[in-house]
Amino acid sequence: MSVVAYRDGVLAADSRAYGGKWCASPGAKRKIHRLEDGTRIGITSGIVGMPERFLAWLAAGADPKAWGEGAPDLRALIIKPGGEVFLVDDGLHFSGPIECEFYAIGSGGDFALGAMAAGMPAREAVGIACQFDQHCGGPVTVLHEEP
């Protein structure tokens, strides 16, 4: 499915597109984004189209009433300008700010966490996760904190 990692102001992700429960990957897609206010977000989900819906909801102001029925089936890391980190886990409520040196989510998240615990930067940790998690792959994309 995905891996998104954050460390030292760098948000990184794999780019393998999820093709649905019974389909091979159709190619690549962007999993990390920057909102107009500078907030960076990395989203992972096993539901085709869910990350795009969540991103649009965030960009529109993140009003829980505007979401509609049900909760989003996804995990997300939200990095506010200035570095505050928030975690989203299958819902519309954000946990945080979380005080952490680094963090990773997605099916390859444990591999990325291990790589960062061994001292690797986020980009390289995503690369390691892509080597060992069959659901991660493609070029690694990166978003740096804006000055």
List the helices and strands and how they pair.
Elements: E1 4-7, E2 10-13, E3 32-34, E4 40-44, H1 50-59, H2 64-67, E5 75-79, E6 85-89, E7 94-98, E8 102-105, H3 109-117, H4 122-132, E9 141-144
Antiparallel strand pairs: 1-2, 1-8, 2-9, 3-4, 4-5, 5-6, 6-7
Helix pairs in contact: 3-4
Helix/strand structural class: alpha+beta
The third-level CATH topology is Glutamine Phosphoribosylpyrophosphate, subunit 1, domain 1
Round the mean pLDDT to the nearest integer and report it: 92
User: What's the CATH H-level homologous superfamily?
Assistant: Aminohydrolase, N-terminal nucleophile (Ntn) domain
Q: What kind of oligomer do you see?
A: single chain
Estimate the helix proportion, in percent: 10-25%
- Strand proportion, as a percent range, falls in 25-35%
Principal-axis shape: globular
* Weakly predicted, low-confidence segments: none
The CATH class, by name, is: Alpha Beta
How many helices does DSSP assign? 4
Largest sheet: 5 strands, antiparallel
User: What is the gyration radius calculated from CA atoms?
Assistant: 14 Å
Number of domains: 1
For the terminal residues, how far apart are their CA atoms? Answer: 31 Å
Pattern of helices and strands: EEEEHHEEEEHHE
Extended strand count: 9
Supply the CATH architecture: 4-Layer Sandwich
The order of strands across the largest sheet is: 3-4-5-6-7
